[in-house]
From TrEMBL:
Reaction(s) catalysed by this chain's protein: Endonucleolytic cleavage of RNA, removing 5'-extranucleotides from tRNA precursor
HAMAP family: RNase_P
Residues in the signal sequence: none
SUPFAM superfamilies registered for this protein in UniProt: Ribosomal protein S5 domain 2-like
Keyword line: Endonuclease, Hydrolase, Nuclease, RNA-binding, tRNA processing
InterPro entries listed in its UniProt record: Ribosomal_Su5_D2-typ_SF (IPR020568), Ribsml_uS5_D2-typ_fold_subgr (IPR014721), RNase_P (IPR000100), RNase_P_CS (IPR020539)
GO terms (BP aspect): tRNA 5'-leader removal
Assembly mode: Consists of a catalytic RNA component (M1 or rnpB) and a protein subunit.
Protein's recorded name: Ribonuclease P protein component
PANTHER family associated with the record: RIBONUCLEASE P PROTEIN COMPONENT (PTHR33992)
Organism for this UniProt entry: Flavobacterium swingsii
Free-text function comment from the UniProt entry: RNaseP catalyzes the removal of the 5'-leader sequence from pre-tRNA to produce the mature 5'-terminus. It can also cleave other RNA substrates such as 4.5S RNA. The protein component plays an auxiliary but essential role in vivo by binding to the 5'-leader sequence and broadening the substrate specificity of the ribozyme.
Entries under PROSITE patterns matching the protein: RIBONUCLEASE_P
Length: 124
């Protein structure tokens, strides 16, 4: 499995982001939240992913950037859970929603649980 997070997988389209916030569904596993919406993608891409950490919880950009890096890394290492179990193409937004400073291991465990919960929700 290719464990990369290439530029083609990064969610940058304003229209897709607006669609996520207006029509997206979400699954949560405290303190993480995944908002998703089926989208039409060109080429062989299957996923578009963006990450977000609230300024409300982390005032300093250094702290927000650290947690965004951790979220991207946990996504990169566990995205096979999403790719193997979904037929449709999705746009995702991945949120860190607490002021608690979890360790990398805790965030990684929660990410795996969140992705499994997402897979279960789309199978229904």
């Amino acid at each position: 499995m290719n464990n990369t997070y290439p530029k083609t997988e990064k969610l940058k389209s304003k229209t897709t982001i607006d669609l996520l916030f207006s029509e997206g569904k979400s699954v949560s596993k405290y303190p993480l939240r995944l908002v998703y919406v089926p989208i039409d993608l060109e080429k062989e891409e299957q996923i578009k992913m963006g990450v977000s950490v609230s300024k409300k919880y982390f005032k300093k950009a250094v702290d927000r950037n650290y947690f965004k890096r951790v979220l991207r890394e946990t996504y990169r290492l566990n995205k096979h859970l999403l790719l193997e179990n979904s037929e449709k193409k999705y746009g995702f937004m991945f949120f860190y929603q607490t002021k608690d400073r979890l360790t990398y291991q805790e965030i990684n465990e929660k990410t795996i649980q969140l992705f499994e919960k997402f897979v279960a929700s789309i199978k229904e």
